[in-house]
Design brief:
Oligomer: single chain
Helix content: 40-55%
Mean pLDDT: 89
Structural class: alpha+beta
Distance between the termini: 23 Å
Strand content: 15-25%
Strand order of the largest sheet: 2-3-1-4-5
Shape: globular
Low-confidence stretches: none
Number of strands: 5
Order of helices and strands: HHEEEHEHEH
Radius of gyration: 14 Å
Number of helices: 5
């Protein structure tokens, strides 16, 4: 997957930026935070469509491939974004028992642009894949902890 991600990354990023544009506008205008997650299951025939069943109406899911998707969690701060992603992870893990399930999440901040946020999110999922950090939700704080333990 890492090779596919690297080859298609720009396209995936552009698609996710377009999908999250309304959320980012509301963030800039009204300071309504949001989080974005990427979910990937290692099985090519894996189907993450069940993730959509566990979202709120104001959240958005976009599929890059049946086994790889992006999710925008509306009105969430860092902690709530991680909690929402963990909720999806725990509900979907039962369907994909013994398979590698990767998730990464990031929350909008005033310090970074929408492009930088999405770019960093793809860096997080690539790091998780490269270091086999499966079956957990990875955010920037976990990457720092992981690097310190190496």
């Amino acid at each position: 997957m890492l090779n596919t991600l690297n080859q298609q990354r720009l396209h995936y990023q552009e698609t996710l930026i377009k999908t999250s544009a309304d959320y980012h506008y509301r963030f800039n205008r009204y300071k309504t935070k949001y989080s974005v997650a990427l979910a990937y299951i290692s099985e090519e025939n894996g189907d993450l469509s069940s993730c959509g069943e566990h979202l709120r109406e104001s959240d958005t899911i976009i599929f890059f491939q049946p086994n790889f998707c992006g999710i925008v969690f509306d009105n969430t701060n860092d902690e709530e974004g991680i909690k929402a992603a963990n909720n999806i992870l725990s509900r979907v893990q039962n369907l994909f028992f013994a398979k590698h399930f990767y998730m990464a999440t990031i929350t909008a901040t005033a310090e970074q642009s929408e492009f930088q946020m999405i770019h960093d999110l793809f860096d997080l999922i690539a790091y998780a894949l490269e270091h086999n950090m499966d079956n957990l939700v990875v955010d920037a704080s976990q990457i720092i902890q992981h690097k310190q333990s190496l």
